[in-house]
Design goal:
single chain, 168 residues, mainly beta, Porin, eight-stranded antiparallel barrel, signal
Amino acid sequence: MHKYIYILLLFLGFPLHALCQANSMEAEMHMQGNSLSNEFQPYEICADFKYNILKRLYVKCEFEHTIALFNINGNKDYYTNNMLGAKIGYTFLSISDLSMSAACGIGDNLQKNNNWKYSYYDAGIYAYIGHYIIRPCIGVLLRKYDSRNSNFHDYTRLLMSLGVNIKI
Protein backbone atom coordinates (compact mmCIF):
# COMPACT_ATOMS: atom_id res chain seq x y z
CA MET A 1 0.00 0.00 0.00
CA HIS A 2 2.83 2.39 0.86
CA LYS A 3 4.42 1.92 -2.57
CA TYR A 4 1.19 2.99 -4.26
CA ILE A 5 1.07 6.14 -2.13
CA TYR A 6 4.64 7.06 -3.12
CA ILE A 7 3.93 6.44 -6.81
CA LEU A 8 0.78 8.56 -6.57
CA LEU A 9 2.71 11.39 -4.88
CA LEU A 10 5.36 11.19 -7.58
CA PHE A 11 2.86 11.56 -10.41
CA LEU A 12 0.95 14.30 -8.61
CA GLY A 13 4.20 16.26 -8.47
CA PHE A 14 4.55 16.53 -12.25
CA PRO A 15 1.69 19.06 -12.71
CA LEU A 16 3.30 21.22 -10.02
CA HIS A 17 6.20 21.84 -12.39
CA ALA A 18 4.00 23.96 -14.65
CA LEU A 19 2.87 26.13 -11.72
CA CYS A 20 6.30 26.59 -10.13
CA GLN A 21 7.88 30.02 -9.86
CA ALA A 22 11.30 29.09 -8.47
CA ASN A 23 11.89 25.96 -10.56
CA SER A 24 15.25 25.05 -9.03
CA MET A 25 16.70 21.86 -7.56
CA GLU A 26 19.15 21.05 -4.80
CA ALA A 27 20.83 17.86 -3.61
CA GLU A 28 21.78 17.22 -0.01
CA MET A 29 23.95 14.64 1.74
CA HIS A 30 23.81 14.48 5.52
CA MET A 31 24.11 12.27 8.54
CA GLN A 32 21.73 12.40 11.47
CA GLY A 33 21.49 10.58 14.73
CA ASN A 34 20.87 10.49 18.46
CA SER A 35 23.07 8.94 21.13
CA LEU A 36 21.21 10.20 24.22
CA SER A 37 19.14 7.07 24.84
CA ASN A 38 20.52 3.70 25.92
CA GLU A 39 17.59 1.60 24.68
CA PHE A 40 17.42 2.83 21.06
CA GLN A 41 19.97 4.90 19.11
CA PRO A 42 19.23 5.70 15.44
CA TYR A 43 21.94 6.74 12.98
CA GLU A 44 21.07 7.60 9.38
CA ILE A 45 22.98 8.41 6.22
CA CYS A 46 20.74 10.45 3.93
CA ALA A 47 20.64 11.64 0.33
CA ASP A 48 17.89 14.17 -0.43
CA PHE A 49 16.65 15.80 -3.61
CA LYS A 50 14.92 19.12 -3.03
CA TYR A 51 12.69 20.87 -5.57
CA ASN A 52 11.86 24.52 -4.90
CA ILE A 53 8.27 25.11 -5.99
CA LEU A 54 8.15 28.75 -4.92
CA LYS A 55 10.92 30.96 -3.62
CA ARG A 56 10.25 29.75 -0.06
CA LEU A 57 8.21 26.53 -0.50
CA TYR A 58 9.84 23.20 -1.40
CA VAL A 59 9.28 19.46 -1.55
CA LYS A 60 11.98 16.93 -0.82
CA CYS A 61 12.48 13.24 -1.63
CA GLU A 62 14.69 11.40 0.88
CA PHE A 63 16.68 8.18 0.61
CA GLU A 64 18.10 6.93 3.90
CA HIS A 65 20.23 4.04 5.07
CA THR A 66 19.51 3.60 8.76
CA ILE A 67 21.39 1.79 11.48
CA ALA A 68 19.35 1.22 14.63
CA LEU A 69 21.26 0.22 17.76
CA PHE A 70 19.18 -1.49 20.45
CA ASN A 71 19.98 -2.35 24.06
CA ILE A 72 16.82 -4.01 25.40
CA ASN A 73 17.10 -5.77 28.77
CA GLY A 74 20.86 -6.07 28.36
CA ASN A 75 20.61 -7.65 24.89
CA LYS A 76 22.52 -5.53 22.37
CA ASP A 77 21.55 -5.78 18.71
CA TYR A 78 21.39 -3.67 15.57
CA TYR A 79 19.23 -3.55 12.45
CA THR A 80 19.75 -1.78 9.14
CA ASN A 81 17.02 -0.49 6.85
CA ASN A 82 16.70 1.41 3.60
CA MET A 83 14.04 4.08 3.77
CA LEU A 84 12.22 6.31 1.29
CA GLY A 85 10.58 9.51 2.48
CA ALA A 86 8.96 12.74 1.37
CA LYS A 87 8.96 16.17 3.01
CA ILE A 88 7.39 19.54 2.45
CA GLY A 89 9.11 22.61 3.82
CA TYR A 90 9.02 26.38 4.06
CA THR A 91 12.00 28.76 4.28
CA PHE A 92 10.95 31.24 6.95
CA LEU A 93 14.21 33.22 7.18
CA SER A 94 16.53 34.23 4.37
CA ILE A 95 19.17 36.86 5.12
CA SER A 96 22.60 37.50 3.61
CA ASP A 97 24.48 34.33 4.60
CA LEU A 98 21.86 32.32 6.43
CA SER A 99 18.58 30.70 5.49
CA MET A 100 16.42 28.68 7.87
CA SER A 101 13.54 26.41 7.00
CA ALA A 102 11.01 24.19 8.73
CA ALA A 103 9.90 20.89 7.20
CA CYS A 104 7.70 17.92 8.04
CA GLY A 105 7.65 14.53 6.39
CA ILE A 106 6.91 10.82 6.32
CA GLY A 107 8.87 7.73 5.31
CA ASP A 108 8.68 3.96 5.08
CA ASN A 109 10.82 0.83 4.56
CA LEU A 110 11.87 -0.16 1.05
CA GLN A 111 12.63 -3.80 1.88
CA LYS A 112 10.04 -6.44 2.70
CA ASN A 113 12.17 -8.85 4.72
CA ASN A 114 13.50 -6.60 7.48
CA ASN A 115 13.50 -7.66 11.12
CA TRP A 116 12.35 -4.21 12.21
CA LYS A 117 9.70 -2.66 10.00
CA TYR A 118 8.61 0.88 10.73
CA SER A 119 7.34 4.13 9.32
CA TYR A 120 8.50 7.52 10.49
CA TYR A 121 6.96 10.94 10.88
CA ASP A 122 9.16 13.94 11.54
CA ALA A 123 9.34 17.71 11.81
CA GLY A 124 12.50 19.76 11.92
CA ILE A 125 14.29 23.06 11.59
CA TYR A 126 17.28 23.35 9.23
CA ALA A 127 19.89 26.08 8.74
CA TYR A 128 21.85 26.60 5.52
CA ILE A 129 24.97 28.73 5.86
CA GLY A 130 26.17 30.80 2.89
CA HIS A 131 24.88 31.38 -0.64
CA TYR A 132 27.45 29.32 -2.52
CA ILE A 133 26.83 26.33 -4.77
CA ILE A 134 28.03 24.01 -1.99
CA ARG A 135 27.05 25.08 1.51
CA PRO A 136 26.93 23.41 4.94
CA CYS A 137 23.63 22.63 6.59
CA ILE A 138 22.70 21.71 10.14
CA GLY A 139 19.38 20.67 11.57
CA VAL A 140 17.39 19.51 14.56
CA LEU A 141 14.39 17.28 14.05
CA LEU A 142 11.89 15.36 16.12
CA ARG A 143 11.15 11.93 14.64
CA LYS A 144 8.47 9.41 15.61
CA TYR A 145 9.35 5.80 14.71
CA ASP A 146 6.08 3.89 14.29
CA SER A 147 7.01 0.21 14.65
CA ARG A 148 5.00 -2.44 12.81
CA ASN A 149 6.53 -5.35 14.78
CA SER A 150 5.38 -6.65 18.14
CA ASN A 151 9.04 -7.07 19.19
CA PHE A 152 9.73 -3.30 19.22
CA HIS A 153 8.06 -0.29 20.76
CA ASP A 154 7.28 3.00 19.06
CA TYR A 155 10.05 5.50 19.69
CA THR A 156 10.32 9.29 19.51
CA ARG A 157 13.79 10.79 19.24
CA LEU A 158 15.38 14.22 18.84
CA LEU A 159 17.95 13.93 16.02
CA MET A 160 20.84 16.21 15.09
CA SER A 161 21.72 16.53 11.41
CA LEU A 162 24.94 17.70 9.73
CA GLY A 163 25.69 17.75 6.01
CA VAL A 164 26.20 19.66 2.77
CA ASN A 165 23.72 21.14 0.31
CA ILE A 166 24.50 21.45 -3.42
CA LYS A 167 22.57 23.74 -5.74
CA ILE A 168 21.95 22.07 -9.10
